[in-house]
TrEMBL record:
Domain Prephenate/arogenate dehydrogenase intervals: 1-243
Record keywords, A-Z: Oxidoreductase
Keyword Oxidoreductase (UniProt): yes
PROSITE patterns for this protein: PDH_ADH
Source organism (scientific name): Halomicrobium zhouii
Xref: Pfam families: F420_oxidored (PF03807)
Coiled coil residues, start to end: none
GO biological process: tyrosine biosynthetic process
One GO MF term attached to the UniProt entry: prephenate dehydrogenase (NAD+) activity
Matches recorded under InterPro entries: 6-PGluconate_DH-like_C_sf, NAD(P)-bd_dom_sf, P5C_Rdtase_cat_N, Preph/Arog_dehydrog, Prephen_DH
Name of the molecule in the record: Prephenate dehydrogenase
Length: 243
């Protein structure tokens, strides 16, 4: 299988490592040539000129979410059998693949973890599946991942809670919290501080893209305001409603 990964960041490298085998040919294309060269040094394969018209069995788009539709449009003509993305949202990429690669197998994949925490759950939408799509799923499963079939609508709605709302809640706690000696920590507060460390250990731009792509942050702000403004009886009602 001849594979082109568009976007030589952590997620593109993860896809190449988990899906390609020693018998496959892997190429990396990136607007930053240094990033493509670094990916080749790390994963193997070769650098592919973004301006070339070379074709591949599979094109995987692994760019930031806002850039996904344009990247899919640009690289779809270079896919002979299948095109997929690992960008993190699904509705817009799937619509772009359907429009620009109508004759190809189409997959949208979202690893629900950072690459350094692999393996884990991988959400998958399959559109116009076939042999290549099945091979990708089989190789991800063989690598210890749990592949979960979904729809673009179900996935993106879930991301409003598991990403946009969750990140908002954790970052709001981080912004409001004071440093506290360990001997004062409760199981709840210690868990929250662990989440703060995990959440703030990534790239701010990635989190900004998530907040822009999915609704949910305003809901957390509204709920926090309701708690802050509640008297004792209203707080009890609020608490029991969630219990």
């Amino acid at each position: 299988m001849k594979l082109l990964v568009v976007g030589a960041g952590a997620m593109g490298r993860w896809f190449a490592e988990r899906v390609a085998t020693a018998d496959d040919q892997v190429g990396f294309a990136d607007t930053d040539p240094d990033a493509a060269r670094a990916a080749v040094e790390d994963v193997g394969g070769r650098v592919v000129d973004p301006e070339s018209d070379e074709r591949f069995d599979v094109v995987c788009v692994a760019v930031p979410m806002p850039a996904a539709p344009d990247a899919i449009e640009a690289y779809a003509p270079r896919a002979e059998r299948a095109i997929c993305d690992v960008t993190g949202s699904m509705r817009d990429p799937m619509a772009a693949m359907h429009e620009h690669a109508p004759d190809c197998e189409r997959l949208s994949l979202h690893p629900l973890f950072a690459p350094e925490r692999a393996p884990g759950n991988v959400a998958v939408v399959t559109d116009n599946g076939g042999e290549v799509s099945e091979t990708v799923r089989e190789r991800l499963t063989a690598g210890g991942n749990d592949v979960v079939e979904t729809t673009p609508e179900e996935h993106d709605q879930a991301m409003e809670t598991v990403q946009a709302r969750a990140h908002t809640a954790v970052l709001a706690f981080a912004a409001a919290a004071d440093d506290v000696p360990d001997h004062f920590q409760t199981p709840v507060s210690a868990g929250l501080f662990d989440l703060v460390e995990q959440t703030t250990g990534g790239e701010g731009r990635v989190y900004a893209d998530i907040q822009a792509a999915f609704d949910g942050a305003d809901d957390v702000a509204t709920a926090a305001a309701e708690i802050a403004d509640a008297d004792a009886d209203r707080f009890v009602d609020f608490y029991e409603r969630l219990s």
